[in-house]
Amino acid sequence: MGYLVTILYIVAFSMFIYGLSGLTGPKTAVRGNYIAAVGMLVAVVAVLIDIRETDNWILIAAGLIVGVVLGVPPALRTKMTAMPQLVALFNGVGGGTVALIAWAEFLNSDGFTAVEAVPSAPFIIGSLFAAIIGSVSFWGSLVAFAKLQELLNKNVEKVFVSNAKAFQVANMALALISIGLAVFIGINADGDPQSSLLIVGLLVAAGVMGLFVVLPIGGADMPVVISLLNALTGLSAAAAGLALNNQAMIVAGMIVGASGTILTNLMAKAMNRSIPAIIFGSFGGDDGAAGGGGAAGGTVKATSASDAAIQMAYANQVIVVPGYGLAVAQAQHVVKEMANLLEEKGVEVKYAIHPVAGRMPGHMNVLLAEADVEYDAMKEMDDINGEFSRTDVTIVIGANDVTNPAARQDSSSPIYGMPILNVDQSKSVIVLKRSMSSGYAGIDNPLFTADQTSMLFGDAKKMVGAVTEELKAL
């Protein structure tokens, strides 16, 4: 049976790796998810075989049922706009699970004094590392979920953002406390009842640190934070696997940790910000409530659906720039219909995707793929930026900060130096927004008052539908 368990673990993490490789493009992403899910099922079967002599089958079955009941319905019912929140929540549950495993192993081993299955040093270090990082990830992910779901009071959120430096000091103190407790527990593993209080203190200190790390981080940085928390959860799972001598947890955790770290680094570079700058010096508060008018002064020119349709119908090339507003309105299908009509009229249509558009990595790609937009038509920022100067019309649908020319022109802007989509270089720009509110970073966008820009106000789905009807009439 031991050989069978090992073989199943190898099969499981091989499927994890193969499934992950399928996530490189929308065409293979669904298949990749299915393969990885089957791999996880194989890993669960391997664990059940490995613990076949346990007396806790009723408890295990109950846990499996609860997990399915709590996990499947939200995954099926959650709209694409709320997917970032779901990712943050599920990621947090993973981190919390790892922290609880570390606590349970501490209690089960009588304060690390009854370690038999594996060498004591990896067991103790892995458990304590998993306890700290898992707790940070759990509570930090809950805050990320609350921010994205807009459960936090906006005034309270602004207090945390404006006092970020005070929380930096608190986090340094909490980190020292957590590490100090971990070292003390590890060195003095003697089964003393007082040690149980110390491990609880460690979990509490790490949990508060998780809260204090994420609470002051502004909305514009949340996609990077979600990716970072995901990487931390993976690393904590790998540490727990090291403690339990479980190969599947080690490999799966390292895959998640490594891929999450790479993605976090890529997204930070896309914003021209270091990860420490994001954690300790974030910008942006709420979603459009800050920043007042959002247009940095100047005259705003409104347009109509008919005028927008005429502009695009007689263009050679149109670029669509999707943002979170498109996701909120669920406008991806009507955008695809509009693009089809333009292409029938001989207009070339492309989609410009900024790495941090939306509220999670790849948010816009997933939305457009859902509407059957061809993968080749979705152009990454570096590939599309040279096209804007040759583009007749660019239509910006719900995007704000990723098109803000202040990132290039205004050295005093919080987003100065952040690579953006060069929308302002287009011959004509149509910006579709509900109002003149600022974006997620809470700063004004001078693109809205540029000479070549016209504003089309209204719900994205409704207004793109109106433009589509006008195109049909031309």
Model description:
- The chain is α/β, with parallel strands linked by helices and 474 residues long.
- It has three domains: 1-77; 82-280, no CATH class; 305-473, TPP-binding domain (Rossmann fold, 3-Layer(aba) Sandwich), CATH 3.40.50.1220.
- Helices cover 61% and strands 7% of the residues.
- The protein has 18 helices and six strands.
- The protein has a six-stranded parallel beta sheet.
- α14 packs parallel to α18 (460-473).
- 50% of the residues are buried.
Short description:
It is an enzyme of class 7 (translocase). The protein is 61% helix and 7% strand. The longest helix has 29 residues, at 120-148.
Radius of gyration: 25 Å
Shape: globular
Unreliable stretches: 284-293
| Overall mean pLDDT | 85
Question: How far apart lie the N and C ends?
Answer: 71 Å
Fraction in helix: 55-70%
Q: Which class do the helix and strand fractions yield?
A: alpha/beta
- How many structural units, i.e. domains? 3
Oligomeric assembly: single chain
**Could you give the order of strands across the largest sheet?**
3-2-1-4-5-6
The sequence of SSEs as H and E is: HHHHHHHHHHHHEHHEHEHEHEEH
Largest sheet, strands/sense/barrel:
6 strands, parallel
Strand content of the residues, in percent? 5-15%
**Total helix count?**
18
Strand segment count:
6
What key phrases describe this protein's structure?
3 domains; 474 residues; alpha/beta; single chain; Rossmann fold; 6-stranded parallel sheet
Task: Summarize the topology.
Layout: H1 2-21, H2 26-50, H3 57-77, H4 83-108, H5 120-148, H6 154-162, H7 164-187, H8 193-214, H9 222-244, H10 247-270, H11 275-280, H12 305-313, E1 317-322, H13 324-329, H14 332-344, E2 348-353, H15 363-370, E3 378-380, H16 381-384, E4 393-397, H17 406-409, E5 428-433, E6 453-457, H18 460-473
Parallel strand pairs: 1-2, 1-4, 2-3, 4-5, 5-6
Helix pairs in contact: 1-2, 1-10, 4-5, 4-8, 4-9, 5-7, 5-8, 5-9, 7-8, 9-10, 12-18, 14-18
